[in-house]
Amino acid sequence: MSNFDSSEIDAEQTRDAALFSYKKFVDAGITNPDDIPLDAPAHKLFDEWRQQLDNEAGDNEEQKLRADLAKTMFYVDAGFTDPEYLDEVLKEWFVQSSEDAPKEVENPDRQETRRQIAEAMLKVKKLLAESSS
C-alpha cells in the first residue's frame, strides 16, 4: 500500500456506515434495494461514499473501473438477495463493467481489475444458485 491517506479510511468508514444502514432493511426482510423508501437516510450515506470513491479515483481509469465495481457490489455486500435484482446485476451491470474494462494482456492493473470483476460475478452467480434452491 502507498503512503497513509486519511481519505481512504474515511471512505471505508462511510461505506461501513452505509452497509450497516442498509443491512437493517435486509434484517427487516427487504430483499431488493429498490424497495427501500427514497427518503431513507441510508441513501445519503451511500451517496456520500459513492462521491468519496469517485473523488479518490480522480482521472485514473483503472481506479474508476474498480470504483464502479465496488458500487455495483455494494447492495450485494449489504445482503440484498432478490433473484431478479441479482440477475440484473449479473446480466446488465457486469456486462457493462466487462465492456468498460477490455482485456489488456500487457497491463497488470487491467488484469487485476478483470480478475476482480470475474470474482464478483462468481459471487453473484453463487447467490443466485442459492436463492433458486
Account of the 3D structure:
This protein is an all-alpha fold and 133 residues long. The chain has one domain (6-131). It contains five helices and no strands. It has helices at 6-27, 41-57, 61-78, 83-100, 108-131. Helix 1 (6-27) runs antiparallel to helix 2 and helix 4 runs antiparallel to helix 5 (108-131). The longest helix has 24 residues, at 108-131.
Record the SSE blueprint.
Elements: H1 6-27, H2 41-57, H3 61-78, H4 83-100, H5 108-131
Helix pairs in contact: 1-2, 1-3, 2-3, 3-4, 3-5, 4-5
Could you name the key traits of this structure?
133 residues; mainly alpha; 74% helix; 0% strand; disordered N terminus
Give a count of the beta strands, DSSP E runs of length 2 or more: 0
Q: What is the average of the pLDDT values?
A: 89
Estimate percent helicity.
Answer: over 70%
The rounded distance between the terminal residues' Cα atoms is 41 Å
Main β-sheet description: none
Summary, kept brief:
The longest helix is centred in the C-terminal third of the chain and has 24 residues, at 108-131.
